[in-house]
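Final report, results section. Input specification for complex C-07:
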Amino acid sequence: MSDPVLVCAKVKKSYVIPGESGAAGRLEVLKGIDFEVRAGETLAIMGRSGGGKSTLLSCISGLDVIDSGEIRLMGQNLSALDANSLNAFRASRIGIVFQQFQLLDHFTALENVRLPLDLAGVSPEKADQVALEKLERVGLAGRESHFPDRMSRGECQRVAIARVLAMGVPVIYADEPTGSLDVKTGKVVMDLLFTSAKESGAALVLVTHDPLLAKRCDRILRIEDGLLKEGPLELTSELGV
Ligand SMILES: Nc1ncnc2c1ncn2[C@@H]1O[C@H](COP(=O)(O)OP(=O)(O)OP(=O)(O)O)[C@@H](O)[C@H]1O
Ligand SMILES: [Mg+2]
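Structure output:
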């Protein structure tokens, strides 16, 4: 079997709980997370709201600093890189569809999708061509000059997905990528994400509350009390009963 592209070992992450006179304590979100993802593998992460799914994605992207443990992406320990090297390392390897999309407000849809290509030194003509093609594939042909505040949430979500597809990276993380899409558009966009990942051999890690979407993945893990467990979320624990 291929080497894992992502290894997450004994990862712990907590946040400071602010109090009136300084820190009131720490909220332990991830309490020792262990898992691996291989090239071409699709993995769904489920769990209750506030359980730590987005936190985990931030940590395995190197966007958030972990308290302890180790995250190795394509053999590289993320904690061993300084800020500049980490940025460069991430840009060429990880594409993230953020839960809040994180589009740049003053950039058009086309410019948002182009940005990673421009930063990677791709020629302007090629960057335009790839960005237009990806926007078309997510059903946004003709919207390239729209700014995010003139688009619906679902359209912004699709711009965020087009941006990741344009990057052509080996590891894709998507945080509730269908959260703002109607059922039909969600299926079309997810088909595209799965097909693109399969074609390029990219690993795909999805955070989702949608059991049908999770079922399309090779494996399902769920976060429970700060730890990862195998298998889909039980309805009873989702409802907190
Ligand atoms: N920067 C932060 N500072 C303090 N607490 C935080 C921070 N980010 C997240 N948290 C807390 O950590 C916990 C986990 O948050 P996280 O966003 O990872 O949950 P989630 O599983 O993604 O939830 P959802 O399904 O609602 O998106 C929450 O209780 C949240 O309030
Ligand atoms: Mg979240």
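The mean pLDDT is 91. Residues 43 and 219 are 5 Å apart (CA to CA). This concludes the modelling results for the funded period.
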